[in-house]
Every structure is written in structure tokens, then in C-alpha cells.
Fold:
Amino acid sequence: MTDSEGTEFKRITRTFFEKEWQGTFDIFYEVSADGEKNYVKFAEFDPRDYSRLDAIFKEKQSEVFYIKETDLYKYYQFNILKHLLLELAQENYSPWEVVRTVYPVVTRLLQDYLEISTSDTFLELLDEIPEVLSESLFPNNLSFFELFAITQKENTIQTHCANVGLYCLSLARELEMNRKDCEEICRGGLLADIGKKSIPREVMFKETALTEKDRQTIRRHPAFGKKMLNEMKRYSNTVLRMAGEHHENFDGTGYPLKIAGNNIDFAARICKIADVFNALTCRRTYGELLSPEQALTFMKEKMKGQFDPELLTAFFIYVDRQ
Ligand SMILES: [Fe+2]
Structure:
């Protein structure tokens, strides 16, 4: 949410304060006048003083407040991420435990990034995550079913991004790519659909059937995503090409470039498989949710020309192995 001066605010509820905070921040409440939203500073809050927080909530008789986006960034940086990395360094977690612990942080960060309109710096908070995930899968990859038990099946953009990042990583690992390449492919998978942020919400989240015009609008997200990531000047060519080419088909029938075969970036061909597989195995507004086996059969029988056959076979072998 943005006020009349363009400052971004994030809606928070009481549960937001349950974790230990470092540093102070301002709490705002929302006032609407003449169709314009404004945020009025209600209090400066020192999170160590919980009794005062109680008083604030009681006095205002509300459970909903707002903080500035910049404070939310600090919250993730100094609280959530710092705690996460500390926990991973101290505990002797198995690969499954690492991925399971990191997953909710990734989806939460992506959700906030996607909901706050001007916060590209937010993506920087994800910088260390692909390395942590990639490291955890050496020497041993997770089995497909261990991974499938972690990925949520909600049809949201943040869940889709997180799942695609993990499936890209595990397939890259299965192909015996090195740690750095696995890390970049994981990063590219996490960010491949970030261009959907630029698609109007009424089209992206439309609950009725999409029109041809809607479809064309949504099909602009690879180009938007690549452009956004390129402008941030912090991502590799692999990450950029995964965003731009993950809807290209091996037989040249995809979009937006209609390139085929090896002209499609190798990592983007991995991403294509992860993307379709996750879309088929997640709940949708319309259309059914498929089991992994049903999804693979569908991909093989109805969509075969779209995928790099060698990569699709490698993914089949990975999923089939118990
Ligand atoms: Fe996409």
C-alpha cells in the first residue's frame, strides 16, 4: 500500500511482533479520506518493550497496523534471515531439514516482494538462499518424494516460484552439475516468474476463464521478468535467460521468442520442465490437481514436443527412483 506521497507501507497484525526484533520502528494506522489513503504515525515501538505493545493494541482497539517498507526490509534482514542462517550454522541438519526450514522463509519473502509494488531491493534478501540450498544437496541430493513432501501445492505465485526453484535445483543436482551451477539454476528458478508482478492483478488473479487478450497479457511476463532482473544489475546471464526463456518450447512453439532446441538456454530448458510440472501438481482455480505420476504422463503424452527429451528423461528417472 502506498500513501499520497508514494511511501510504501506493509500491513501487519499482532502476530508479526511475536518474534524477537532488533531496533525500533514506527507503527502507523490507515486513514482514508476522499478516496486517498494516508498513514498516520501512531507510535514508535521498541520491540523489547512488550508491555507497551500491549497497551498500544488495547488503546487503538485494532489488530491491524502498518510499518514502512524500509522497516520491513530491516525486519527480514536482521531478524528472519539472521536467525535462519544462525540456526542452519548451529544445527546439524539433514538436507531435508535444511530445505524444509528455508522454504517458508523463501515463500514469505517472495510474497512480500510481489505484494509491495516498488520494492526491488527486497529481492536482495534472497541472495544467500540459493547457495544455502545448493550446499545442502552435496554430497546427497534429496529424493524426489522428500522434496515433494516439502513443496506446498497452493496456486500462488510465491509458492510456484519457490517450488520451481527447488525442482530446478534438484534436477540440476541430478544431472551432476557443480555447486555453483546448481546455485545459479536454483536462483533462476526462484526468480523466473518474477515478471508476473508487472501483470495487472485483475488479469493475473482472474477467477473466470481467461480471454485471448488476458492470455497475451500474461505471456508478457518472461520479457518483463528478464528486463526487471537485468535492470537490477546483480544477476547472471543464466538467471536472466531462465526468466526470459522458460516458456520457450523445444519444438519452437513456445513464447515469446519462438526459439527451439539448443537455441534455448540449457537452464531455461530445465526451468520449463520444473514450471510445467509444478503447475500441474498445484491446486488451480479451475482444472484438476495431478499426482506426480499423472503429471509426468501428461507431460510425456500430451506435451512431449515442448521439452528437451534428454532432460525430461532425467526428470522421469529422478521422480521414479525411490
Ligand atoms: Fe512463467
Remarks:
- The chain has a mean pLDDT of 89.
- Residues 9-68 form one domain.
